[in-house]
Specification:
disordered C terminus, 25% strand, 17 helices, six-stranded mixed sheet, single chain, alpha/beta, 3 domains, 22 strands, Rossmann fold
Length: 511
């Protein structure tokens, strides 16, 4: 018999937040050289478990063992010193510090004067990044200036480069366009004997990487079995207590032959955009595809006035004619163009406010009288939209920070509807949410365009673009290089064009 203890043993862990039970009597083991998937709907307890293993939270009851010894980390730094590293879904980087400093936090090297030795630190950082296949990131760059995908890579490298014996990866591909980069790194760590707990909502990743999976529901472990023995339906049924096989909303296109333009962009150019032109029609879901850093974030932000344009024109439909609103977020919102941003935690929600306050912000004037907020009127107005996004009413009085990621995203979408949007700009709205929340978002999108709205939709999930969109614009080198629709709108061709290939098969046409 093998007498080597498991790298990690979780024994009867429970965690409560007031009356809310986040974890209840959870137990499992993780061995060296093993990737174990951790599955569950948003709010199932996955994030609490990761925080407990990372030293961020202390369990109320139960015990943790690392390589046979009791493991009671005081904080994240203590966990790291004991060989446990975490790449968080909600990135833990400091945006005002450089890449190099972030990589070595909390103890970057200092010189004799006690100051951070920046040149030495940047040289070391460059070697570490290159060894992990990340050569495009400047170690001297501020983290806040990096694209989200680059920050995700940095978060992963920071967790991996010290070669931990236990590695926790929380939705690591949520912002990655190149998953193979991560999979290669995982393979290297496994060969060194690292144990990996892999949290993901993407079953293809779980099946590719994990020999077994632990499934949580309502804070309890409901299944711990080899992945190969479970069908997709069994996995989803275990996660949700019902059959919710991941599928797309079966609904015909809402785009009519006589549809009128809702938004028109003509020859937009700026730092990061090159001569972008397209027309978004009423009743249409127009997809945007592109590998990391091809101008997609700049495009969405420019359309609502968050980034300046060097040249070009943006027009929005108003009372049957196209008008040119001023280039500012306030003017865009007044014209009915609303952006749902990519980073929910930092750009989408106000963490110190309740859920109802987050949703009602655009309509606060309508809920007030003589500058006093009417809670009854606010509740009535919010009640008109929460059903459209499947946000349960009992979450409204709670702090939005207490909600799962999926319910936070529903609140952000509800706020967009409260703003009386006619054009929704959705930037990767299903990133990091579970299958149930995805279905709610898909239904909301279909209903919105069915009512005459228009959606510009960027997603890192190619199957979403293929199944949900009427057309798809493909960006490469900060410009539109392809427009795919009908039989040409396939995952294979989207990926090929996005990588700069297959352009001869992609018809470039504007409407």
């Amino acid at each position: 018999m093998n007498s080597t203890p498991p790298v990690l043993e979780v024994r009867g862990i429970s965690k409560h937040y007031g009356a809310t039970v986040a974890l209840r009597d959870v137990s499992f083991v993780l061995n060296a050289g093993e990737v174990c998937g951790l599955l569950g709907e948003n709010g199932a307890g996955k994030s609490t478990l990761v925080k407990t293993l990372s030293g961020v939270e202390v369990p109320d009851t139960g015990a943790l063992f690392l390589a046979g010894s009791e493991y009671r980390p005081r904080d994240r730094n203590d966990a790291r010193r004991q060989g446990v590293a975490t790449a968080f879904q909600e990135l833990s980087l400091v945006s005002t510090l450089s890449v190099a400093v972030n990589l070595f936090l909390p103890d970057p090297a200092v010189n004799r004067a006690g100051l951070v030795a920046m040149r030495q630190l940047e040289r070391q950082a460059a070697r570490i990044l290159a060894a992990h296949g990340v050569s495009e990131i400047d170690p001297a760059a501020l983290v806040g200036d990096l694209a989200l995908g680059q920050r995700q890579r940095l978060e992963i490298v920071r967790a991996m480069f010290r070669r931990p014996r236990l590695l926790l990866l929380d939705e690591p591909t949520a912002a990655l366009s190149d998953r193979d980069w991560l999979f290669d790194l995982v393979g290297n760590r496994l060969a060194e004997g690292t144990a990996i707990l892999y949290i993901s909502h993407k079953l293809d990743e779980i099946r590719r990487l994990c020999r077994r999976s632990v499934i949580l529901r309502n804070g309890q472990k409901v299944l711990d079995r080899p992945v190969a023995e479970m069908s997709d339906d069994e996995i989803f049924r275990s996660m949700a207590g019902r059959s919710v096989v991941e599928r797309f909303v079966a609904a015909p296109s809402a785009l009519r032959a006589d549809a009128q333009p809702a938004l028109r962009a003509s020859h937009l150019s700026s730092d990061g955009l090159e001569d972008i032109s397209f027309t978004l029609m009423a009743g249409e879901i127009l997809g945007v595809a592109g590998l990391e850093g091809q101008g997609q974030a700049r495009l969405f932000r420019s359309l609502v006035g968050l980034y300046p344009l060097r040249s070009g024109r943006i027009e929005v439909a108003s009372d049957g004619r196209m008008v040119r609103p001023q280039r500012s977020p306030r003017a865009a919102r007044a014209a009915g163009v609303v952006l749902v941003p990519e980073e929910r935690k930092t750009e989408g929600i106000f963490k110190d406010l309740t859920t109802i306050a987050n949703v009602s912000l655009p309509a606060i004037d309508h809920a007030s009288k003589l500058h006093f907020l009417s809670r009854r009127r606010e509740r009535a107005l919010v009640g008109q939209v929460i059903g459209d996004v499947d946000l349960p009413e009992h979450f409204l009085p709670l702090s939005i920070a207490a909600l799962s990621g999926g319910n936070q995203q529903k609140a952000v979408l509800g706020r967009a509807l409260m703003a009386r949007a006619r054009c929704l700009l959705l930037f990767d709205p299903t990133r990091g949410v579970d299958v149930g929340a995805k279905q709610s978002i898909y239904r909301m999108m279909r209903a919105f365009v069915g009512g005459g709205g228009a959606i510009l939709f960027y997603s890192t999930e190619l199957d979403e673009l293929v199944h949900l969109c009427d057309r798809c614009l493909v960006l490469y080198g900060n410009r539109i290089v392809g427009e795919l629709q009908g039989p040409a709108l396939s995952q294979e061709l989207v990926l090929s064009v996005a990588a700069g290939h297959g352009l001869e098969r992609a018809a470039v046409s504007g409407r």
